[in-house]
Structures
1.
Amino acid sequence: MAWFRAASGLTRLALRRTLARTPPNITQTRHFHPTALRRHAAPVPRPVPLSRLTDSFLDGTSSVYLEELQRAWEADPSSVDESWDNFFRNFVGQAPTSPGISGQTIQESMRLLLLVRSYQVNGHMKAKLDPLGLEQREIPEELDPALYGFTEADLDREFFIGVWRMSGFLSENRPVQTLRSILNRLEQAYCGTIGYEYMHIPDREKCNWLREKIETVKPMEYDHERRTVMLDRLIWSTQFENFLATKWTTAKRFGLEGAETLIPGMKEMFDRAADMGVESIVIGMPHRGRLNVLGNVVRKPLRQIFSEFSGGTKPVNEGEGLYTGTGDVKYHLGTSYDRPTRGGKRIHLSLVANPSHLEAVDPVVVGKTRAKQYYTSDADRTKVTGVLIHGDGSFAGQGVVYETLHLSALPNYTTGGTIHIVVNNQVAFTTDPKAGRSSQYCTDVAKALNAPIFHVNGDDLEAVVHVCELAAEWRQTFHSDVVVDIVCYRRFGHNEIDEPSFTQPKMYQVIRNHPSALEIYQNKLLESGQISKEVIDKIHKKVLSILNEEFINSKDYIPRRRDWLAAYWAGFKTPEQISRIRNTGVKPEILKRVGQAITALPENFKPHRAVKKIYEQRAQMVETGEGIDWAFGEALAFATLIVEGNHVRLSGQDVERGTFSHRHSVIHDQETGEKYCPLDHIIMNQDEEMFTVSNSSLSEFAVLGFELGYSMENPNSLVLWEAQFGDFANGAQVIFDQFLSSGESKWLRQTGLVCLLPHGYDGQGPEHSSARLERFLQMSDDNPYVIPEMDPTLRKQIQECNWQVVNVTTPANYFHVLRRQIHRDFRKPLIVMSPKNLLRHKDCKSHLSEFDDLVGHPGFDKQGTRFKRLIKDQNDHKDLEEGINRLILCSGKLYYELDEERKKKDRKDVAICRVEQLCPVPYDLIQRELKRYPNAEIVWCQEEPMNMGAYNYITPRLLTAMKALNRGSIEDIKYVGRAPSAATATGFYSVHVQEQTEIVQKAMQPEPIRYPY
Ligand SMILES: Cc1ncc(C[n+]2csc(CCOP(=O)(O)OP(=O)(O)O)c2C)c(N)n1
Ligand SMILES: [Mg+2]
């Protein structure tokens, strides 16, 4: 194939040059498209010097040359280029009916071959894709037979086109055919209502597979039974929209009118997928046609859809204090059902809830699909598949599409192929395609991933069904992405109350008079006499009567108990149901055992010297229990969770080694390059994927979305995404805003996803210092002026909050906060401001006894060993310390700097408390400390600028805690930290050092702090 492609450009040039010299001598035929007006005779062969005999065959244009070549080949096949060898072997071995091999014959066959190939490459350019017929595309010259020297006189002549190792028209087994029949089939196959784009795929097997499907001897035909089913499905799709339109005339529903064939297309696709082994499909789609998909494809009860339409998605009246969240508009909600298929199987369909942000759901769907594959042991990824539906505008415009496509073949992210369907209504709100994209097709982005693309005229139901089935077959055969581009139109405005003629007057003049796909199909069937009017009317009546019946039933429809808990989530608690706080300490013997397992390396493994040392140090930490650092604390959290049967998955850029070269969770043998991951070897016969650590593509949006989707499938998994530096998280802002912070509230779906965002001021400049803590805190939904129930036996504070934000300062506390994610009966996202310089800080170490659950050990308090939301002053203060003059509340690594300065200045009258969990605020512990130091000046100290960090979040909450104790007013909260700033940090290291010094010095100054009041 490669030689063919490379050479074809040259040949085309040569042909063009030759053709330009030849006079016209044929009349136009209706087989040739209107651009084929050139009247050329066959090209006159050019002499080619014998010295070029070894050239590749597509370079040659002279019959003399060819004859010379043939002679040379006959004498010694190896004397000519391999491509010529193949060529002659085929032609010499042809059937006896062949007119014999002469230079002229070879010439013609060669030119015909180029013509065939042009159809394969460019046939889609001539396909009738636009139902409105408005498309003005220039038909490529390459599809003009005259370009290759063929005239009308050639139409009934017979030609060879057999070529070795090709299928379809180019297969060696094709008999001799007339030019007319070849052209007819090419036109039917490539220029009908389907436009195939696949010649960009650099894999002969795949191209041949498609060619076999496309270049069939006869055009594809469905039988009567299939046609009746398709008709029935199209009637459902069409009537559904009509019904909604008549019942709710002014409601926005983002109807499917103009693209109704999507529904039968999807159903037939799913049936075909089920026939080929698919048992479960995860679907993501935007607003357009969503209700129709929910009702007709996913089979959400129509009465429920109608009930939601009438009343909005009202909170379900199912008792007091129901967990309904804020809800969402009807065309965003997700659901899942089991649906019977045409072939008599059952298929599970889940439509993932999505925000208005187009395409943002793509990676979420793919991540959820991957998780389903893990939990159903779908090793070859043929039982669970993702299907994404896109709009033409958003598919071309949104970058996350490209980011998601790029996950498709990555070992730890692949799902064995996503099927993409574009509802290409040739407009995006009011924007025409020519203003909305720079590529010819809205699907061109998928070509970068070598996905085949099937463009289809949305008015041709059978063609839509055909490509939908073909897409399912491709996915099941080649386990890679495939795109169906349904070219259709939007009968009404962007929504039903929008006026489209303001901006697309001409298009809408055509649309007004354009029959629906259903009318077109019905007429086709009636004309062909295949289905009678009575049968059609009967289906219509049946559908309408069911719709009416469901509408009546919707009036007293009582929603089922909310279905937020998927199978794996049974027993998990909603925020109304209290979840007991559990300890997270681990038995010392287990800690030792897993500690040894994850520090042992295979005998002959040769790690890098520095890594070897790190592992020796870790082994030492287990042995002595001393000096456990951040990375090892994390590894112990992962390992203990795995021992308990949980799945752990950490993904993000360079996470295997760790951006700061601290994790080294995958080790590389320095001689063989072999990899070894100690956390894969904790339990006997551990499943390879049970612990997954994976460097991701250089994407934030798609990768975070993927992990979010992954985390939502099963609660018994700790899924973590780590940003390279915390501020890169803003590349995934949509996932934070639309999914992570608000998803539970909108869609009642929980997730325990952990985001590790490196944060801290070490003088590395504006882009490497801040994870924008303030943003996460600002999105937190706890009321700053209300202290919730804080009693440990009644506390639901975290359950009622949208997420947790922590800035942890010890390896042990990090260990416990990770384990806490799993050791509770609910799931909540966790945002971690993770450290950089603490990874190697001499004081940022924990003792193994802080990880275990033994009474009397340092981590053990009244309840046992668990995450410390606040770490009190380390100077062994009593319950009442009247001599303390200043209480500094801080968070994160600044603590260590403050402590050092305190030691330096010997300020025994200053207490420093670390607020490890910023959100939700540990009111009980803050109040405990306020009471401990009744005379202390209260200081909030941070290293971030005043308009950043936790200051704005903490102030009102600290005030609320103080007020409840009659402990002063807002003026009594003193601020020590950087001044407000636009950039997060200075780019000058010396300025950083000076600023940092000023902060710690000010915090320890003997005189009272006056700032900011
Ligand atoms: C990320 C994002 N940007 C902008 C919008 C606003 N918006 C809603 S629909 C729409 C047009 C979408 O066009 P297309 O993808 O072709 O889908 P269609 O509505 O035509 O089905 C726009 C711009 C949005 N929802 N999401
Ligand atoms: Mg559109």
2.
Amino acid sequence: MLEQEAAEHMVSPSESLFFSPGTGRRIHYMISKGGSEALLQALTAAAQPEPPDHSTLLPLLRLLARVGQRDQKFGLKVQKADATDTILSLARRNLGHHLYLTHCLWVLRVCASNGEATLGINGAMELLFKVITPYSKRHVRTVRAAIEALAALLKSKSNSRRAVNRGYLGGLLRLYQDWHHNDVSNNYIYIRRGLLLCLKHITNIQLGRETFLGSRGMEILFTSVQDCLSCKNLDPIITTVTQILRKCYPKEPLPLASVRSSYSFPLPRNAKAEPPCEGSEGDYESDGEEEDEKDLDNEDVESKEEDYDLETDVNKLRSRPVLDRPEEELRQYESMCPELSHNFQVLSQCGEKDFKIPLQSWTKKEKCRWDQTDVKRDIAEAAQDAPSCEEEDPASSHVLALRPLPKDAAWCKKMFCSECEDSINPNAGGRLESSYTLTNLLEKHQEDIPFHSPRFYVARAKCVKSIADYKDLAFPDFWGHQPPPYSKPMLERKHGVQSAEETSSLKQPAIGILALIYCSCSSPGAPGCLTFFSKFESGNLRKAIQVREFEYDLIMNADVNSNQHHQWFYFEVRDMKLAVPYRFNIINCEKFNSQFNYGMQLVMYSVKEALQGRPRWLRAGHDICYYKNHYRCSAAAGGGMRGKFYYTLTFSIKFPHKDDVCYLAYHYPYTYSTMMSHLDILEQNRNPKKVYWRQQTLCQTLGGNLCPLLTITAMPESKKGDDLEQFYNRPYVFLMARVHPGESNASWVMKGTLEFLVSSDPIADLLRKCFIFKIVPMLNPDGVINGNHRCSLSGDDLNRQWLTPTSQLHPTIYHAKGLLYYLRSIGRAPLVFCDYHGHSQKKNVFVYGCSIKETLWQAGCMVDTNVITEDVGYRTLPKILDKVAPAFVMNSCSFLVEKSRESTARVVVWKEMGVLRSYTMESTYCGCSHGLYKCTFSLKPSASLHQGLQLGTQELEEMGSKFCLGLLILHLKSLPCSKKVMAQAALLLDLEEEITDRTQRSVIVAFRGFSCETSWCRYVLGLNLQKWTFVMAEVCILGTGMY
Ligand SMILES: [Zn+2]
């Protein structure tokens, strides 16, 4: 018989064949030709004689172990060949002969790993258990083989059940302890790990977990792992212990009466049925058998799943859906394009005067210097377009008080006279807007923060409509933020922090304080505790629980009308001691991974620091770590099929002053009032001779707040026909930001864009002459105001509503889309559309765009280039940004159209409005892994040079202004433009001095504070200069090529 011959041929002499390179292929070939069966037959034959023929058996067993490992049906084949008993009895007969025994155990292991189910019934476990107990360092190879075989067997749930019933779990725990204590020099890590794997498999079943807890498993493993934390070699052990501890730790619901947001908002006219309310908190699942252990160190888990999500239906990709509303409705948007019907005949004569009034010294008196008619009309229009607070119904605006200041600050005594101390005391009813505190503070404020005015802020904040009816102003938003003179590198991750944090979190709370000290609806805490507060614009903290003397568990509030989307936090903390590291655990995070594990820090603002002249949000926190915790959300409450997991963000903070008032946030806050007061300042500071600026209201939000719409372009050069025609015919650029309220980085980028657009920079001047900008700086004001992370008041993700928005539920989206429809209907669809976002999982700044070809190609579809012709113009802008914007990285961009994104602004505007350059621009919350901001240097020679910079507001704003520069270059590259524009551009972008200045400025800005070595400086400068030169060269080549 062929098989038998083959087997005989294979054994002994040609055994070496299978251990040489190329083995894998040969073995697979052999398996396909019935090799496993033949070997098993040979084994049965060789095992029959008494005593067995060991000279054949040993190589045969070795071969079987080898081949079986690669044969997925090996277990079945063993069963079929009735070889199970043969192997087991061979092992039993050789209990005293360790070489033979070990060989048998290897084969048993591959049987168990590859589907031999009957081993458990046949007494294999008893045999293996006998081999490994009691603890002994003799015959370690045999012990190892037995433990590995046992671990393989225990993967089967019925075997695990059997093992528990026979009392093996306790035995395994004791054995693990013995190995742990005796393996002082860590020579037997694989044995310890093997035992842990046995425990890990057994605890996959409920019975196993209960028995584990009953056998003091938590304490035993927890104590043992404490000795391992300092040693890097022991990572596999620490990881496995952590997995077991986490799995066995009793699951609990969050310490909340209901996970649903503490705020609810009645939707208009029953527009949508309420989502089913969560069940009682007792019904959380004790959770399915196994939990997926996602690899935390794989940053790209997301991208693996993306390919399945690609839209591959060419017809869907190319179709243009019909209008989602009656066509006559579009007429209402005509009034949102006042620039198209503006009559410039009243334009003043002295338009050439240069505007040189410094920003902060702007007064009404100076304003009068301008042409009276023009100013009057401006004011009249502004009043009509952008209702400001003063004109509103006084009843609608409410009294706001600044949060109480630190009590003992020295400046405080100097600043306030004794009789008005009441106004500083939180309990003395000092909630008077005219309080001395506010007045004195306003007098003290240096007004030296560009584009920020506390007065304007207060005025705007008074008009905000919030669900909780905020009565307090957070100090940082009122006082303002000035970026620090340096950027901070990403935190370097210390070895073992994750494991240490994770395992220590699994201990029972050491001290039974567990006092509830803050609840968004209750009173302040006990003496000696920190005091928390977050009932102010964009604030989000639901509950704080003191778990140890200096440690607090914090719970974020869910988005309004929802029970999820916890990520954004912003709260005040006071009554701290000096030099104490406080530990905070935010215990209801939802994302399975976070940049907090890759160098990102949160931000902190100290009121004392601010009053001493350093008003700034700073990156803060150390020993930061993010991991899955033991809290679960019941399936009903989580709105999903299975109970949802929660994650903990944990960090330590040392506050800079005693008894300070500090604010902590997920990222640099940027409230709705900040945005509105910023627009007020921009409006007042622009040069109306040069900048055409209209602020209108796109619509009112569900919460009754106004969503502003801006139009920015250059005033026409003159009243002459040509110039007016040029004005009316400028292509449109449509920009939006902050549809997701937790993405405050998007607002800082938008701030940079707006400031550049109205600035007197000659590039801005030229850019304004090239485009009409339509800008919605904050698409989700209600979400931002109420401290949401993702949604609007309806509980919807507004960036998933673009296909069919409704005017009742998603007014801002409905009208933004309406305006875009209108532009398309008059043949003026924008040249560029960009929606600013923030990305929590990736580094750098990048865009998502839309390309049919790239989508099909990525999905592995055939692309018929004759059928699909596509303009690759969508790539130009990101390519330019890669060169001009230090934080922007082309390689991070993607141009794929995903099914799950079909209702986002980017895809809808691309498909329905036919906008080729339709983008989502994502800014990281963290920092840069490429480009100029990647290289940092430290004075400490030991410190790494590889950590990139964390982005600050300065870098985000710079991104916004560089985006504008990119638009200008795009215009020069892609559109026919007049000789005049080209000449101006050449003059601006080609002036070497100017460029050097600019470059140096930007580099100095980026690297201020680093007392870096000259060579480094030169390197960085050179790098940036090269970039510039490159752009210049391109522009110049283009310049000569046209007209
Ligand atoms: Zn977003």
